[in-house]
Amino acid sequence: MAGTTDVAHTYANITAGDPAPWFKQRSTGNPSYMFDTVAGRYVVLCFYGSAGDPLGRNALRVVDENRALFDDDRVALFGVSLDPADESTGRVAESLPGIRHFLDFDGKVSRLYGVLPRDAVAGASVPVRRSWMVLDPTLRVMAVFPFAPDGAEGAAAMAFLRALPPPDRFAGFEVPPPILVIPNVFEADLCRLLIERYERHGGEESGFMREVDGRTVGVTDHRHKRRRDYTIDEPDLIKAVQARILRRVNPEIQKVYAFKATRMERYIVGCYAAEDNAHFRAHRDNTTLGTAHRRFAVSINLNGDFAGGEVSFPEYGRRSYKVAPGGAVIFPCALLHAVSPVTRGRRYAFLPFLYDDEAARLREANSRHVEGAGDYKAAG
């Protein structure tokens, strides 16, 4: 990425139109906050440096005076502190909804965004380029307001926020998510058969994957996800499912995305049950070493007699999708997506991932970093 210089220092140059770098950093309320999950609203990053000096105090005063703007629905604000005293003295604190602070004491985030030089080390005295940065709901930069000696940039940033349209019309109109919707992938008899298999055997609580100390591990957190899964192990049933994906899904993926899927991961029937308050909060499906090979997610509803349980794509607005039984919603695994709580009945769905031979080699290379992965071979 191009940079600008300041004496002997080189800084990242993040400007309007650029994608905002993703990162994981400690915050005032989360020891490992995944920044990419905040998409779906306007996001303000306030790189105030320290709440202990006049410029930082003035920025936080502007935040306080405009508290009503930050509601986590339309706008979320993240302050970024470089000063450990901000935490130890309680000068900054989370204020929900809408206001959080990253404790960027190692400078990781500030280096990514050009606030600190690329070569800055913790504790060193270097020029700090403080600024406000406004991101759109897809986490692309809309505007940057560098700090001014008189603090006027804070008022300008707030005026900019007030003039923005609703988040789902940030581009001037509603932007549809880049997804496929395909009816009639599974016939009614196959849907009933898959549900029957789940009901006969029951499902097991399923978690999600997280990166912990360089390894991909399974995690269970009912605040984030609640679902029970049954793994299909009957060869004839697996072949029946494969045949329909090959004939009815793969050609559409190749037509729309110019991608030829050759592999399928997991043959599960998932059950989102109202009695469990089942749901899956916003997430991406390929953000760990153990899931990086995944290219497309397929969500095929097996029934329709439930309420809630709809799939949405927060980066592209609030519209949610509930296809008829046998229909599929297909989307790139990198898209942020969520499943709303089921409020009545049970939603049954077939939920595989698709990938290709190149991704299979990546899966094999990464398998040594995955808890319980076994000896995965791409040629298998």
Automatic annotation (TrEMBL):
One Pfam family from the record: AhpC-TSA
Key words of the record: Dioxygenase, Iron, Metal-binding, Oxidoreductase, Vitamin C
Record-level Gene Ontology MF annotations: antioxidant activity; dioxygenase activity; iron ion binding; L-ascorbic acid binding; oxidoreductase activity, acting on paired donors, with incorporation or reduction of molecular oxygen
InterPro entries recorded: AhpC/TSA, Oxoglu/Fe-dep_dioxygenase_dom, Pro_4_hyd_alph, Pro_4_hyd_alph_FE2OG_OXY, Thioredoxin-like_sf, Thioredoxin_domain
Cofactors: L-ascorbate
Domain Thioredoxin: from-to ranges: 14-163
Domain Fe2OG dioxygenase as annotated: residue spans: 260-357
Organism domain of life: Bacteria
Classification via PROSITE patterns: FE2OG_OXY, THIOREDOXIN_2
Matching SMART domains: P4Hc
Identification of the protein by name: Redoxin domain-containing protein
Organism: Methylobacterium oryzihabitans
Record lineage: Bacteria, Pseudomonadati, Pseudomonadota, Alphaproteobacteria, Hyphomicrobiales
